[in-house]
Amino acid sequence: MKMSWRYVLLGVLALISTAVVLLRDSSDRHHTVTLTWNAAAPPRGGSLAGYNVYRRIAEGGPFVKIAGKVPGSPYDDRFVTSGRKYVYVVTSVDQTGRESRYSTPVEVQIP
After folding, report:
1. How far apart are CA 103 and CA 107, in angstroms?
2. Residue 11: CB partners within 8 Å, gap ≥ 6?
3. Nearest Cα to Cα of residue 25 among 10, 51, 4
């Protein structure tokens, strides 16, 4: 049985704050991390363009954008390596390009 991991980011707002829930999910997809979050409220006087997803290796280093202007949740990261540990954050982006602060980071250990 192959396993994929689903991480749910809850409470995504214009200035994203999150609580994280880990779900263990069996499926035929292997080495996939699925990030899910609640829709952000549109910024005052503007409209939401999408979300940016960032990742870094848990041992350190800067966050790197792995997906830009994702239209909504969920997002599947299929480019993960077995045995590695990653940290993810999500931001919301408005039509003018303004980006929210990072969500609360979530750490993922790939089996």
Report:
1. 12
2. 17, 18, 19, 37, 38
3. 4
The per-residue pLDDT for 6 is 56
Domains for the chain: give ranges and CATH numbers: 3-109 (2.60.40.10)
Strand, helix or coil at 103? coil
Structure confidence at residue 20 (pLDDT): 36
Mean pLDDT in each 10-residue stretch from start to end of the chain (111 residues)? 51 39 42 82 77 92 94 87 88 86 86 80
Distance (Å) of CA 108 to CA 12, 44, 48, 78: 19, 33, 27, 13
d(CA 85, CA 2): 18
Beta bridge partners of 86: 57, 108
Cβ contact 45:94 at 8 Å: no
